[in-house]
Amino acid sequence: MLKKICKKILxxxxxxxxxxxxxxxxxLSACQYPIRDHERIESDPYFVYLPATDYTQEKxxxxxxxxxxxxxxxxxxxxxxxxxxxxxxxxxxxxxxxxAEFISAQKLLPNNPVPSLNLLRLYYILDDISDAKKFMEDFxxxxxPLERKKFENLLIGSNREEELVIFRDAxxxxxxxELYAWExxxxxxxxxxxxxxxxxxxxxxxxxxxxxxxxxxLMVKMANILEKWDxxxxxxxxxxxxxxxxxxxxxxxxHAYYEKRRYxxxxxxxxxxxxxxxxxxxxxxxxxxxxxxxxxxxxVSPLLPYFRKLKSKGVQFSEEDxxxxxxxxxxxxxxxxxxxx
Length: 341
Description:
Elements: H1 2-9, H2 21-30, H3 35-43, H4 57-62, H5 66-70, H6 79-91, H7 95-108, H8 114-125, H9 129-142, H10 145-157, H11 161-171, H12 178-191, H13 195-208, H14 213-225, H15 229-241, H16 249-259, H17 263-272, H18 281-294, H19 304-312, H20 319-322, H21 328-339
């Protein structure tokens, strides 16, 4: 791995002049990772041990120096020992040796995901994303769907999100797996608020499957966050046109119509919302705003039962704070605003 990096750095034209000796030595030293990266690699908690005979976890952790670690090169025979020896080399920054041991363990244990998980982790932690993706593509092509799912679940269970992105990016190259992979990528980038990347994958999904419910639903949510009200209406109406809904769809539609000052239509969508989704401060705030925008003297008492349910669950607002127009003082203040007194 480091050898490949060094080969990219050392161009032949640098080797034919003695005047470049100092530069050459500097480039050779550049093939070693800085101390901070050594510390990150050596202490990374995501490399997985296997039950082994010779290279147990205790033995691996007892080796304290790279010099001692080098003496173990070529000593492991069984696949679990090779896997754990790879971790020994990782802990001591002997990264080419670690790569070789993980690859060897993987070949000997094709149905065990652990060596493959460790190899992916090694590529990822070194920011060698091209090798990571190439490795994942080969791994996915060689394994049946059940093994792919097992591998994915292990990444999910250990919260290895960035490696999961590499996995799904590679999975999208497998025929028949594109939509599933793109949906996972769109969800991931949505949660990270990387809107342009999420939109990129949602658009790919909808190009291939125009009525994909989850993609249209995520488009609605994203458009609401980005205040693209026309897009909210387009994708929201598309969902209702096919008899489908996503959570809080009516809220998003009402919000879009409210922002476009189409208050009657906003109120129609509010009435369509399921009762359970009306029990939130955000929903009630929008409902109240729609009523008062349409008619400053509107009766907001229909919201009270929902607000009181929220109060019983611990909401700290008082009724007077949230519904000022229900008090004589609040009504008087509203009249002053209306008539400019």
